[in-house]
Design goal:
Blueprint (H helix, E strand, L loop, with lengths): L1 E6 L4 E7 L9 E5 L2 E5 L3 E5 L6 E9 L2 E8 L18 H4 L4 E2 L2 E2 L2 E4 L5 E4 L3 E4 L5 H4 L28 E4 L3 E4 L12 E4 L2 E5 L3 E5 L2 E3 L5 H14 L3 E4 L2 E14 L2 E13 L7 E2 L4 H15 L8 E6 L2 E12 L1
Parallel strand pairs: 12-13, 19-22
Antiparallel strand pairs: 1-2, 1-20, 2-7, 3-4, 4-5, 6-7, 8-9, 10-11, 10-17, 13-14, 14-16, 15-16, 17-18, 19-20, 20-21, 21-24, 23-24
Length: about 325
């Protein structure tokens, strides 16, 4: 088991591996094509979370945990603002699809029967922000030199026009049926249009088929909560969750997770008085499954942390929630 974390401020990667031998057993450390090879009595091949000109700068061992530090030898790697995300299937994302006659060609299909739901003949627009309705009161609603009172005229809803699709963080707003021909419910009805959940769709272009992991919904919900309330401690279902860090690129057991949230979580006996993210039973199971899946891939030496909670020690599990 291993975990690699890219540390952008140090321009380096920290690698932690469950190591069965001694440091003196290592005969070679090699980095080729984004893969770190540690060769000794056993061979370890580790996928790095980010590309760059990395070289080994230090190596040490504590108990069964081998720690390596890889320093980037070239210029500093540019990182995005951790409070923002390049949403999957945003307009920016869709512009990467192939073009025919100078027009992007793609289609969203039902994940169950592959019926076309919406395609690139529509006009696509991104939602301004998931928090746009809450921020309306902060916007100017009068002209710079006009101090007359003005009435507000908004209800917190954006409605797509004909042949328009509005892209949200985890949904598409479109004037199409809410239920596919195969009987799969694709989302919710909102006024005159449908709110299609991305995890019920697939994006198809050329020979490529993209899925949308359902837990991305929870990932975005947590980011929205942080952006809106600046909180790092929330209740989600049966867990009390601390968000320790944001925007981390990591790799665990042959999988890369970008812009990850590093979280500590523990079951509580009595529900604490804290901010809460409310999810339905299906989404709670998705959340539990994903954080426990990643937790179980971490080296045992670093997969938990003892924290003080109301003057008593509580053992928290460590996990990551990131973009595939």
């Amino acid at each position: 088991m291993y975990i690699c974390e890219f540390l952008p401020r140090l321009n380096s990667i920290s690698v932690n591996v469950e190591f069965n031998g001694e440091v003196s057993d290592i005969t070679k450390v090699n980095i080729t094509g984004g893969v770190l090879s540690i060769i000794g009595k056993e061979k370890y091949e580790i996928i790095l979370p980010i590309e760059g000109d990395f070289e080994l700068s230090s190596i040490r061992k504590s108990s069964q945990l081998l720690n390596l530090s890889l320093k980037n030898q070239s210029s500093t790697i540019k990182t995005d603002n951790f409070m923002l995300t390049d949403l999957q299937w945003s307009c920016k994302d869709l512009l990467k699809t192939p073009k025919i006659d100078n027009k992007n060609c793609f289609k969203f299909i039902c994940k169950q029967c592959e019926e076309v739901i919406v395609d690139s003949d529509n006009r696509f627009n991104d939602m301004p922000s998931e928090l746009w309705a809450e921020l309306m009161d902060l916007w100017h609603c009068h002209k710079p030199h006009n101090h007359d009172k003005h009435s507000k005229n908004y209800n917190g809803n954006l409605v797509p026009r004909d042949n328009q699709v509005i892209i949200g963080s985890y949904y598409l707003l479109a004037n199409v049926p809410n239920v596919c021909k195969c009987g799969l419910t694709l989302g919710e009805i909102e006024a005159s249009h449908s709110k299609l959940m991305k995890w019920n769709l697939k994006l198809v272009y050329n020979d490529t088929v993209e899925d949308y992991p359902q837990y991305y919904y929870i990932y975005n919900k947590i980011l929205d909560k942080i952006n809106l309330s600046a909180v790092r401690k929330v209740v989600i279902g049966k867990y009390l969750v601390w968000i320790f860090n944001l925007g981390i690129d990591i790799s665990v057991e042959q999988q890369i997770l970008s812009k990850s949230l590093k979280i500590c979580y523990s079951e509580y006996q009595d529900k604490p008085i804290d901010e809460e993210i409310i999810l339905n039973d299906e989404m709670l199971e998705v959340f539990y499954k994903e954080i426990n899946r990643v937790h179980e891939k971490l080296p045992v030496n670093i997969n938990s942390m003892l924290l003080k909670e109301d003057d008593r020690p509580v053992m928290y599990k460590i996990s990551y929630l990131g973009l595939q």
